[in-house]
Design brief:
- There is one protein chain.
- By secondary structure, the chain is α+β, with helices and mostly antiparallel strands.
- It has two domains: 5-92, no CATH class; 101-201, no CATH class.
- 47% of the residues lie in helices and 14% in strands.
- The protein has helices at 5-17, 74-92, 101-104, 120-137, 144-160, 166-182, 191-201, and strands at residues 25-28, 33-38, 44-51, 54-60, 68-72.
- A five-stranded antiparallel β-sheet has the order 1-2-3-4-5, with helices on one face.
- The chain is elongated and about 65 Å long.
């Protein structure tokens, strides 16, 4: 028994119809198994073929971290996958209204950062993180003029790593990202996934003074 390529293609069409980007997901499995998982969180949808037109599903949805398991036909499987995709898209593209770099101390800003300079390693790391964020933003399918604004702002941040101390650079970073969101250079419908891209790109940027 196996999940056929035509069945996987059908799932792929559902996935793309819901405006999800495959680069943010991992697709695994062969023969009778297939699984797709969001790279940056626990959301996943796994299928195992148990017999002709009978499938065991293991679903990690948006509202629960415990797996939901069920059995279904292929038609019901596609319907459940479509619903899962819709929920994931909605979650990734919705803000909570509570996002704040200051509240979470996202860049690990400390009092000692007031006068501390970046080390050579930290400069390289930060510039690589900015490059990674620029690459991810390409996936948002923004208008060219908006994409140009964002890239110019990020290029300036990269240059300022060599000029500013940690505190001043982190303050500039926070202000830049906030202004891009508040002025709608980043559209509201894309702000959720934009935050995910920032968290992923700067996951290791916990620079201590």
């Amino acid at each position: 028994m196996r999940i056929t390529n035509s069945q996987k293609l059908e799932l792929s069409k559902v996935f793309k119809k819901n405006n999800l980007n495959l680069l943010d997901f991992e697709a695994t499995g062969e023969y009778q198994e297939f699984k797709i998982k969001f790279k940056h969180d626990y959301f996943s949808f796994a299928i195992e073929k148990t017999r002709d037109d009978a499938y065991s599903l293991t679903i990690f949805g948006i509202t629960r971290k415990n797996a939901q398991t069920t059995s279904s036909t292929w038609g019901t499987t596609v319907s459940k996958f479509d619903n899962w995709c819709k929920q994931v898209f909605s979650e990734l593209n919705s803000t909570t209204g509570w996002e704040s770099f200051e509240n979470t101390n996202f860049l690990n800003t400390e009092f000692e950062d007031l006068n501390a300079q970046f080390s050579d390693i930290e400069k390289l790391q930060t510039k690589e993180n900015i490059k990674d964020l620029k690459a991810r933003i390409q996936l948002l399918n923004l208008a060219p003029e908006k994409l140009s604004i964002i890239e110019n702002k990020l290029d300036l941040l990269s240059q300022k790593v060599d000029e500013l101390n940690k505190f001043d650079w982190k303050s500039l970073f926070i202000g830049t990202i906030a202004s891009l969101i508040m002025t709608f250079v980043i559209p509201q419908e894309a702000s959720g996934i934009f935050w995910e891209y920032i968290k992923s790109s700067f996951n290791n940027l916990k620079i201590n003074g």
